[in-house]
Amino acid sequence: MTVDVSTTALDTAAVKAQFPLLRRQIDGAPLHYLDSANTSQKPQCVIDAMSRFTETSYAPINRSAYRLAAEATDAYEAARTKVARFVNARQADEIVFTKNATEALNLVAQAWGRANLTDGDVVVLTHMEHHANVVPWHMLVAERGIELRWIPLTDDGRLDLSELPRLLDGAKVLSFSAMSNVLGTLAPVPELCAAAHDAGALAVVDACQYVPHNATDVQAWGADFAAFSSHKMCGPSGIGALWGRAELLDETPPFLGGGNMIADVRLDGFTAAPVPAKFEAGTPPITEAIGFGAAADFMSALGMDAVRAHEVELTGYALQTLEDRFGDDITIHGPRDMEHRGGVVSFAFRDLHPHDVSQVLDQRNVCIRAGHHCAKPLMRLLGAAATARASFYLYNDRDDVDALAEALDGASDIFGL
Ligand SMILES: Cc1ncc(COP(=O)(O)O)c(C=O)c1O
Predict the structure, then answer these.
(1) Ligand 1 atom nearest to 231, measured from its CA
(2) Residue 413's pLDDT is what?
(3) Is 100 a pocket residue for ligand 1 (Cβ < 6 Å)?
(4) How far is the CA of 330 from the centre of ligand 1 (A)?
(5) What percent of the chain has pLDDT above 90?
(6) d(C-alpha 401, C-alpha 347), whole Å
(7) Does the beta carbon of 101 sit less than 6 angstroms from any atom of ligand 1?
(8) Does ligand 1 come within 6 angstroms of the Cβ of 209?
(9) Which residues pair with 347 in a beta bridge?
(10) Fewest C-beta in 10 Å: which of 46, 172, 204, 217?
């Protein structure tokens, strides 16, 4: 695949030109899509890869002896290899395709957790988790009485690790987000994985917001499991991945039962297929896997260091612009220092409800998210029912930030502030 952008620095105009949807106008004006932490737009090469596959190679995978089916199976497995390389997994079989990051985290809690955790065992989470890394553990608490402990946050929205040894004492699992979808906070992933292992606990990383924005090396992290979604990294929705260390995946029992995940089925039971098929019950999202692989290729060609550098520059500009322009009228949550945060900017604007802010911004084609961002425990900590959130990605530029600031000014006018 050819990607006509520089691999050293991000040429945003060239990148943006590859996203057909971003050429769309509403009411004759351009769109400012600032909701990529929610879901990202798709480049032409991903759309083309999926169309081409559908038009020329679509067939069942793993089940049929004819050549078309073999070709489809090869393409599906090639996509797995691309995704594995993208996060530097040791081998392709360490990638399990799931529906999304949510399903990947449920797989860990339900399949590994049920097999390994009993009454009184401790699972450590953090106060900045998405519901996808909270509710599956709550479900396990309800089923078998495990204890949840929580890593708190500092006043500036970073993880407060001062009590980490005490929290991890006797724990079986530390499961945490590598980057918060509300605060943008980056967790010190290798440090947390090492601390978990020192305490005899497994390290599970919710990498859903991290993988699309940063070079990811699961081996260097020293993690045990990591979950992420294709739709947040320029790929299609309907597919995500669980990466797991091969030995761990081998010893984890299956999650969902059915076709494709078995080596044998008898009247008195079944034998599971080897990893990763063991965790991919039923017909998988085949075309979406091809799109996921194409997205990994696209991002690799851009260079993830360049993507991160672009987001650091742009988010720094956004923070400065909003603070300079609105001063005390805006409260921005999360760390101020770009070293510790990604391109997610949650804020409160004057005393306007975030939904009102979002609706007014929409009139100027500025798309942001307003709500609890599936992080209600964190919202309670912030003392807010909701926040407004602008999130930046590789196709955003300073025009988008300026449009956000202008639209916020417009909101003040509309509400007579
Ligand atoms: C930090 C984090 N974890 C998990 C998820 C769940 O992702 P998905 O809805 O793709 O399963 C999200 C989605 O916003 C997220 O931001």
Answers:
(1) 10
(2) 76
(3) yes
(4) 26
(5) 94
(6) 14
(7) yes
(8) yes
(9) 332, 388
(10) 217
pLDDT at 101 over 90: yes
Catalytic: 208? Answer: no
* pLDDT score of 414: 77
Pocket test for ligand 1, best of 186, 374, 387 (most atoms within 8 A of CB): 374
Q: Among residues 193, 208, 234, 374, which one is catalytic?
A: 374
Tokens of 45: 């090469």
The pTM of the full predicted model, rounded to 2 decimals, is 0.96
Ligand 1 atom 7 nearest Cα: 101
**CB-ligand 1 contact for 132 (6 Å cutoff):** yes
- Whole-number pLDDT of residue 415: 72
Mean per-residue pLDDT of the chain: 95
* CA of residue 385 to ligand 1 center, whole Å: 19
Give yes or no for residue 5 having a pLDDT over 60: no
